Amino acid sequence: MPDKEKLIEVKDLQITFGSGRKKFVAVDHVNIDIYKGETFSLVGESGSGKTTIGRAITRINPVSAGEILFKGQRISGKISKELDREVIKKCQMIFQDPMASLNERAKVDYIVSEGLYNFHLYKDEADRKRKVEDALREVGLLPEFASRFPHEFSGGQRQRIGIARALIMEPEFVVADEPISALDVSIRAQVLNLLNRLRKSRGLTYLFIAHDLSVVRFISDRIGVIHKGRIVELAEAEELFIHPLHPYTQALLSAVPIPDPELEKKKKLIVYDPSIHDYSVDKPIWKEILPGHYVYGNQRELDGYQREIEAAAV
What we know:
Layout: E1 6-17, E2 24-35, E3 39-43, H1 50-57, E4 65-70, E5 73-74, H2 81-90, E6 91-94, H3 108-119, H4 125-138, H5 155-167, E7 173-177, H6 185-202, E8 205-210, H7 213-216, E9 222-227, E10 230-236, H8 237-242, H9 247-254, H10 261-266, E11 285-290, E12 293-297, H11 299-313
Parallel strand pairs: 3-8, 3-9, 6-7, 7-8
Antiparallel strand pairs: 1-2, 1-4, 4-5, 9-10, 10-12, 11-12
Helix pairs in contact: 3-4, 3-5, 4-5
């Protein structure tokens, strides 16, 4: 997408925890561009490094190597206090567990206002209250909920409070870290529709983190599939579902339930086995195999993917 404006650029990102023999590489040489106004989804199993990337972009996790740019400015590592404040305001996060991420002892009014207090983004008390009420209305909650505590709400309502807390800062970029995985299935669609609506009305850009491919299909513009800290495939949403090339992507897709019981019975579950890759001599590279469709593999694998594409096109 050369004509689109890059909002976030992740270049050769590496994030490690611990040191010496206990060193663990959580994210390994990840490169992503997220364009203004799009929803970019990161999908992978638990522990694959999705959340770690999201937290690094919002400056919660430190970066070991590589860099992260926001609007062309480096925001990883040591930065000026002014830029740090700008990043906090413009890059917000919606957390996975709506109960753990809200202060149980604080009323909703304070929870949603916390960013306003920290950055003094209101003229007077009446202006602050109006902003809180507007934010609550925007996410489908009543303004009178401001005087209640988080434990008085359902999971879906608590997640809406978390979304309101992020929105009140008027961000440009939002990391949605599995925002629906802790919710009932019936509520999930409501929260997804809300996020989609807010993206259009506010011109937001999302990094949407999930482990379920069926969820991201309907909200994403592009999807990156991550396995053990490395992105193995990246493509536009529909393209990834039509031509999944990497065996890990195929395994994730085979786990997506089909609403038709007959088709579900005949479905073959693919189990991913990392030992099928032999990278001892023929080293893997990151290659654009179709316009906008990237895959990670060595030359022998890439030739095989190319043949798959050609066979599918016939």
